[in-house]
Amino acid sequence: GQPITSTANLGKFKTAVLAGSVKVAFVGHSHLEGQNQNWHGANLSRIIESQLRRAFPDVNFVFANLSLGGRYASQFASGTYVGAANDSTPSTSFFRGAASSNNVPEVWITPDLSINGSTVGKSWVQHVKDFNPDLIFFLHDLNETSYITFVTAMDTIMADFQTAANWGGTAPSVVLGTSGTGLQTRDFLLKVHRGIRAIAARYEVPYF
Q1: Pairing of strands 21-28, 135-139
Q2: Per-residue three-class SS string for 117-182
Q3: Does residue 4 contact residue 196 with C-beta atoms inside 8 Å?
Q4: Nearest 5 degrees, angle CA 139-CA 4-CA 196?
Q5: Which residues are bridge partners to 176 per DSSP?
Q6: 15: which of 55, 103, 147, 157 is 20 to 30 A away, CA to CA?
Q7: Residue 112: which pLDDT band, with cuts at 50, 70 and 90?
Q8: For strand 21-28 and strand 60-65, is the pairing parallel, antiparallel, or unpaired?
Q9: What is the mean pLDDT of residues 172-186?
Q10: Residue 6: which residues within 8 A CB-CB, separation 6 or more?
């Protein structure tokens, strides 16, 4: 199917563009994080950054890539998937280093160092909320193994994304993503993508 063109959800992004300053968060798996890319400029998040800067040359963009390769949407949705002192238990916690230790400085680092690696004990979703983005690009599909678990998590996530009180009074604009290739069988990935399109339609958000 073609990407949904509804802009009903893009109010906060539009307001920020008109104000001249936009905060953008990337939340997803390795295709957004880009840790496994030999050339990080070809990472999907960097391509989106470039396109936004080209489309809005007079806007100051601040990007925060808060993606975690190999993780599930349900871990983000749980609110209990937290930062740890190391990445030894990825099923229950995560770790991303500060600027001095990070091989990919664009990941989990902001230019002003308001985000400088993950924080021990802070949930994945809370890291995103503390950044308070105007726009979130959200991409989870490749690592999923249970369709029911995935769509249940996505409903939890989208309800949270659209609850203004959870985001300091103004809900962020959201764009959902789908990956071009997958680690799962093609039939299962296509089913997940159909689920993402249905969720995008239900919550009136664009997707790519």
Answers
A1: parallel
A2: CCCECCEHHHHHHHHCCCEEEEECCCCCCCHHHHHHHHHHHHHHHCCHHHHCCCCCEEEECCCCCC
A3: no
A4: 40
A5: 138, 207
A6: 157
A7: confident
A8: parallel
A9: 79
A10: 204, 205, 206
Q: For residues 109 and 116, is the Cβ–Cβ distance under 8 A?
A: yes
Tokens 């840790």 belong to residue: 35
Confidence band for 44, pLDDT divided at 50, 70 and 90: confident
* Tokens 């799962």 sit on residue: 184
pLDDT for residue 111: 86
CB 206 within 8 A of CB 5: yes
How far from the centroid of its chain's Cα atoms is residue 50's Cα? 17
Number of Cβ within 10 Å of residue 52's Cβ equals: 19
Structure token digits, residue 148: 């029911």
Rounded Cα–Cα distance for residues 203 and 177 (Å): 14
How does residue 1 score in pLDDT terms, banded at 50, 70 and 90? very low
Q: How far is CA 112 from CA 62, 85, 163, 191, in A?
A: 9, 22, 28, 40
Q: What value, to the nearest 5°, has the Cα angle with vertex 90 and ends 85 and 91?
A: 130
The 8-class DSSP code of residue 63 comes to E
- Tens digits of residue pLDDT in 119-178: 999 999 999 999 999 999 999 999 999 999 999 999 999 999 999 999 999 999 999 999
- Quote the pTM value: 0.92
